[in-house]
Amino acid sequence: MSSTPSPLQTTAAATATAWRDPALAFLRPFLDDPDVTDLFINGDRGLFVDRGDGAERVHSWRAGENEVRRIAVRLIALGGRHLDDAAPCVDVRLERGVRVHAVLAPVAVTGTTLSVRVPRWDSPDLADLERGGMLSASQREHLENLVVRRQNVLITGATGAGKTTLLSALLARVPSMERIITVEEVAELRPAHAHHVALEARQPNIEGAGGIPLARLVREALRMRPDRLVVGECRGEELRELLMALNTGHDGGAGTLHASGLTDVAARLEALGALAGMDAASTARLTASAIDAVVHVERVAGRRQVTGWGCPVVRRGRITIEPGRWA
């Protein structure tokens, strides 16, 4: 038998070596802390850690601008991309789904900035979220019924409000014989489900070639016979592809959308529809026929909570979200 290491073994070894770099080793304890959701480095102004109650400064950590820049370059290199003055804003995914976004100075006016999103490793289910206070027993029952009835669900909320966490928990309730295909810009969904296939978009290389956008991945996913089609974050023309797919018999699907409140979802949908070349009336008709429920999540006093839900309806040719009551 050959002793030549496989490409996966080689990559894993290189990654392990890189994490021993003193420039990065200090991050490892935070990445291994199950309570940490986000890390932020704001130039030479310090390191901030969010454990679910808001970002708190780590007073024991100090670094100058040159060291922060070196950390940013090394982290982005771990994800296989290059960060320099020609490409000062880069986003990558590292091992275990850790997402890193870096912006170099002077684009980041106060110094090189790093934002690190740390996904949960334990894939909490709805019962875990109920115990943690994110939702009530009646909300849990209502959400479970959405999955059982194969309703198409759109989860909305601000960045870090818990959209991905809630969606993963919902997908864990999907029967094991059903095939889930998720499409994301950066793969973060990790539902506890045996038949889950994740597709991840790819950014163009430095020559501008090789990019695979979300809209194309949605079309590719439809050729893979999904029982449940999920788009992790609708930001542009992929909204049109998702709505059209859900309108053609692909029920039980889901997506997430950035919105600051349930009442703001309609305007957000219209804006994304316009980016996809649809007018307000077309967006309204497609949304109302494709989406059965909109579930909104927020951070309340630093804690993630499900705060409301509604149904998309068309009024005078425009989409609106009609608030619903929990059973």
From TrEMBL:
Residues forming the Bacterial type II secretion system protein E domain are 28-288
**From which domain of life does this come?**
Bacteria
Cite a single Pfam family from the UniProt record: T2SSE
**GO terms, molecular function:** ATP hydrolysis activity
List the InterPro entries: P-loop_NTPase, T2SS/T4SS_dom, T4SS_GSP_E_ATPase, TadA-like_ATPase
Q: Which residues form a coiled coil?
A: none
Similarity comment text for this entry: Belongs to the GSP E family.
Which protein, by its recorded name, is this? Pilus assembly protein CpaF
